[in-house]
TrEMBL record:
<feature type="compositionally biased region" description="Basic and acidic residues">
    <location>
        <begin position="368"/>
        <end position="383"/>
    </location>
</feature>
<dbReference type="Pfam" id="PF11175">
    <property type="entry name" value="DUF2961"/>
</dbReference>
<dbReference type="GO" id="GO:0016787">
    <property type="term" value="F:hydrolase activity"/>
</dbReference>
<feature type="signal peptide">
    <location>
        <begin position="1"/>
        <end position="21"/>
    </location>
</feature>
<protein>
    <submittedName>
        <fullName>Glycoside hydrolase family 172 protein</fullName>
    </submittedName>
</protein>
<keyword id="KW-0732">Signal</keyword>
<feature type="region of interest" description="Disordered">
    <location>
        <begin position="351"/>
        <end position="389"/>
    </location>
</feature>
<keyword id="KW-0378">Hydrolase</keyword>
<dbReference type="InterPro" id="IPR021345">
    <property type="entry name" value="DUF2961"/>
</dbReference>
Length: 389
């Protein structure tokens, strides 16, 4: 049991070694009392119809339901129609551990795997990926332990039928989990934020802002009760303005403190970048910009991620991760996120926003900005030589 205990703790709890060191430890350690198992959508008749078919809108399907103890270590999913015809923002994935009737994971399937809004694009990180072609393959390498069974459920809220749903769920079966093995959790949130003063006063363009020390109006990425450690976030920003959205500070409250235990200096700083967003996407195992807008300035949709694999954030009683929307919460932004963490026991996550609340805000383009400029010209007397300042 010593070998089993060591392996599981490295895989599930530690997250303190560099990734390559973890991989080498797992590859070289001889495992005892563990068997590799898989549940997949393969055609059990021996034919090649290897998918679940015709999942009706409003229907739920269980894709994984096993008893006993084990650790899920790999998930792969793809589905048809492709994303431009079927929104993965409206297909929900839920995971239930240890026979509980409440999910410890609940998220739209696209955002969970790093595909924001109703879009598809390549995404590469250590624990989560969206693979060629065009992000259609969704992959997880997060370790997901269970002691008394596990169940994964899909719900179709898209208004269209899922014609084909393919999946692998690979797991290590074992007689018993080691003590203190954490349970995987994930939660999706979305909010259309607004300025606390009804003025989008970024960079103090219209005077000073009200100081923010309590995080009262911050966007909430995670709000957790219990003991565990936080291991990352996919963060989706949809900005209606070409102005820079990233001056909002991360403010993380641990164990019920009224002031942040961890206080950041700006959105891009938390995500390990600097001086604004990059012009093109880039990926590292732990952080990156999977999608950047190719519009005007910072107008449009940006997907940023950071996984705290080498630097988990620990808490004993509670954990509240918030971030400002603009400096001192002055910007209107369409924000969404999926947070990932481990707790000492499987706990329920808050209910996620419904399908109507998850809809992305309409795109704003150059034509809209030109119309606004025309209204400004009219308000200034329609001088044909008005420049703009």
């Amino acid at each position: 049991m010593r070998s089993l205990k060591y392996i599981s703790i490295v895989l599930v709890l530690a997250f303190t070694l560099p990734l390559h060191a973890q991989e080498m430890t797992m590859l070289t350690q001889i495992k005892k009392g563990i068997k590799s198992k898989r549940v997949s959508s393969y055609d059990q008749s021996g034919d090649n119809h290897d998918n679940l078919q015709n999942i009706k809108t409003g229907e739920k399907r269980t894709i994984f339901d096993v008893k006993g103890a084990g650790i899920i270590n790999h998930i792969w999913i793809t589905m048809a129609p492709e994303p431009r015809f079927l929104s993965r923002n409206d297909v929900i994935i839920r995971m239930y551990w240890d026979g509980n009737n409440y999910p410890s994971v609940e998220s739209p399937i696209g955002p969970f795997f790093g595909q924001g809004w109703q879009e598809s694009y390549l995404f590469t990180s250590a624990p989560l990926l969206a693979t060629p072609s065009d992000g259609n393959g969704m992959v997880s390498y997060f370790a997901m332990p269970f002691a008394k069974g596990a169940r994964i459920e899909i719900e179709n809220q898209s208004g269209k039928d899922i014609k084909a749903f393919y999946f692998y769920v690979d797991y290590a079966e074992m007689k018993k989990l080691p003590e203190n093995t954490g349970r995987f959790h994930a939660w999706y949130n979305k909010q259309l934020t607004g300025s606390v003063d009804s003025i989008e006063n970024e960079h103090w363009m219209f005077g000073s802002n009200k100081p923010n020390k309590t995080g009262k109006d911050n966007y909430v990425i995670a709000d957790i009760k219990g003991k565990g450690h936080f291991v990352g976030v996919n963060y989706y920003v949809n900005s209606p303005t070409p102005y820079w959205y990233g001056e909002g500070d991360d403010m993380i409250f641990i164990d019920g403190n009224d002031t942040p235990a961890l206080n950041g200096t700006g959105t891009e700083d938390y995500f390990n970048t600097s001086w604004g967003a990059p012009k093109t996407p880039y990926s590292t195992p732990y952080f990156g910009y999977a999608k950047v807008n190719n519009n005007i300035g910072f107008l449009g949709k940006t997907h940023i991620y950071r996984f705290n694999i080498a630097d988990p954030v620990y808490f004993d009683n509670s954990f509240r991760f918030t971030i400002e929307h603009g400096s001192n919460n002055v910007l209107t932004l369409d924000l969404a996120s999926v947070a990932y963490w481990y707790q000492d026991k499987a706990s329920p996550v808050p209910q996620i926003p419904d399908a109507d609340a998850r809809k992305p805000m309409p795109a704003i383009g150059p034509g809209d900005i030109h119309r606004w400029r025309n209204e400004w010209r009219k308000s200034k007397g329609n001088d044909p030589k008005l420049w703009g300042n």
